[in-house]
């Protein structure tokens, strides 16, 4: 009896020793790490996201959430700013307070970032811009930017329309266009509007009747299109600066008893899956691609920085143009 008790207490003691040893032998921080000792060995990334206004944005969020996972060595702190710059500034200040390793910012608009980015710089936290650009005189306020070439997308839109009108035998007709613009002051809006405007003089028979913001959302796109349809009875083309506003325009045109894709040519940007569906349904004519899958690209930049390597300041993503004639063939291969 006595012997058995002794063995049990010896066993218990050795288990206790093992447990205690296990607790204290955890390294305080990763080998070669910065000694901050946060979340064990994980690289902490704060992402100040614009919001959830479009299919593009959702795909972008998912791309970050799937990339910056523990298995890949990251902890992601995600913030949805509901399309408000003040919320993004707050989020960045929170990230600084939490002493994250990297800040990723998808800036809702281009201006007004100096103060908060100075604060990040002073805290020694690298800022990587994703998707949209910022307008600052000191470009040391961010480490790198990755996104689409919005001006080129605008050019591609005009060139595609010119080719399509030619195909339809309407190249010399008077063509009336309206534009549903994105969030005013965002790079995606500024660039696409500029790209289209730069090329308009090549087509003196085209008139830009009106431009107004639809805030990149389907509901606002629909609302603005309804008012355009009331003001103008001879619209030939809608340029929607994202697909979701194009979907809103399609609904407004149908409600007005017209046939989108036939009576009015509809062009969107992004080339999200739902745009391929709208093209297959005959409601939409073209979408100019803008790739949202920036998660792995930002991770590549972070990995380089972790190794102390130099990174390129500007990373443009390759993008195509997808007309309705190719939609059925391509829809299944679309990743977003
Ligand atoms: O086109 C739009 C989104 O900044 C490229 O933002 C992005 C744009 C995208 O809401 O759908």
Describe this structure in words.
By secondary structure, the chain is an alpha/beta fold. The chain folds into 2 domains: 43-147 and 293-317, Rossmann fold, CATH 3.40.50; 150-290, Response regulator (Rossmann fold), CATH 3.40.50.2300. It is built from 11 helices and 12 strands. The chain has helices at residues 2-24, 55-67, 85-97, 114-122, 150-167, 187-199, 218-231, 243-255, 273-280, 295-306, 327-330, and strands at 43-49, 74-80, 102-105, 127-130, 144-147, 175-181, 206-213, 237-240, 265-270, 286-289, 314-316, 321-323. It has a 6-stranded parallel sheet, sandwiched between helices. Helix 3 packs parallel to helix 4 (114-122). It is elongated and about 65 Å long. Mean pLDDT is 91; it is low at 10-37. Beta-D-fucofuranose (GYE) binds next to helix 2 and strand 9.
Q: Short summary of the structure?
A:
42% of the residues lie in helices and 18% in strands.
List key phrases describing it.
about 325 residues, elongated, Rossmann fold, six-stranded mixed sheet, alpha/beta, about 20% strand, binds beta-D-fucofuranose, about 40% helix
Number of β-strand runs: 12
First and last CA, distance? 69 Å
| Annotated CATH topology of the largest domain | Rossmann fold
Write down the Rg.
26 Å
How are the strands of the largest sheet arranged?
2-1-3-4-5-11
Quickly name the level 1 CATH class of the largest domain.
Alpha Beta
* Strand content range: 15-25%
Q: Which structural class fits the helix and strand makeup?
A: alpha/beta
Alpha plus pi helix count: 11
Helix content, binned percent: 40-55%
Ranges where pLDDT stays below 50 over 5 or more residues in a row are 10-37
Total number of distinct structural domains: 2
CATH fourth-tier homologous superfamily of the largest domain: Response regulator
List each distinct ligand once: beta-D-fucofuranose
């Amino acid at each position: 009896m006595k012997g058995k008790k002794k063995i049990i207490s010896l066993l218990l003691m050795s288990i206790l020793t093992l447990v205690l040893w296990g607790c204290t032998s955890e390294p305080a921080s990763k080998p070669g790490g910065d000694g901050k000792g946060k979340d064990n060995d994980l690289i902490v990334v704060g992402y100040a996201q614009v919001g959830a206004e479009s299919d593009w944005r959702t795909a972008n969020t998912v791309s970050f959430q799937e990339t910056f996972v523990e298995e890949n060595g990251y902890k992601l702190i995600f913030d949805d700013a509901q399309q408000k710059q003040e919320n993004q500034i707050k989020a960045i200040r929170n990230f600084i307070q939490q002493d994250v390793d990297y800040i990723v910012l998808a800036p809702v608009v281009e201006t007004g970032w100096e103060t908060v980015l100075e604060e990040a710089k002073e805290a020694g936290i690298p800022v990587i811009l994703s998707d949209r650009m910022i307008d600052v005189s000191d470009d040391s306020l961010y480490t790198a930017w990755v996104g689409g070439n919005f001006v080129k997308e605008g050019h591609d839109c005009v060139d595609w329309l010119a080719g399509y009108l030619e195909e339809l035998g309407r190249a010399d007709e008077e063509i009336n266009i309206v534009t549903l613009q994105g969030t005013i002051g965002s790079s995606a809006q500024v660039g696409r509007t500029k790209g289209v405007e730069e090329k308009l003089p090549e087509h003196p028979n085209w008139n830009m009747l009106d431009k107004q913001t639809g805030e990149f959302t389907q509901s606002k796109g629909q609302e603005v299109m309804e008012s355009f349809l009331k003001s103008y009875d001879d619209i030939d083309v809608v340029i929607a600066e994202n697909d979701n506003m194009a979907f809103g325009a399609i609904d407004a045109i149908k409600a007005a008893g017209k046939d989108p894709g036939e009576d009015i040519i509809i062009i969107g940007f992004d080339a999200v899956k739902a745009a391929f569906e709208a093209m297959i349904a005959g409601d939409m004519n073209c979408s100019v691609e803008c790739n949202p899958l920036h998660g792995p690209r930002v991770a590549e930049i972070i990995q380089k920085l972790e190794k102390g390597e130099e990174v390129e300041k500007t990373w443009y993503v390759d993008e195509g143009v997808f007309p309705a004639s190719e939609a059925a063939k391509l829809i299944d291969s679309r990743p977003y």
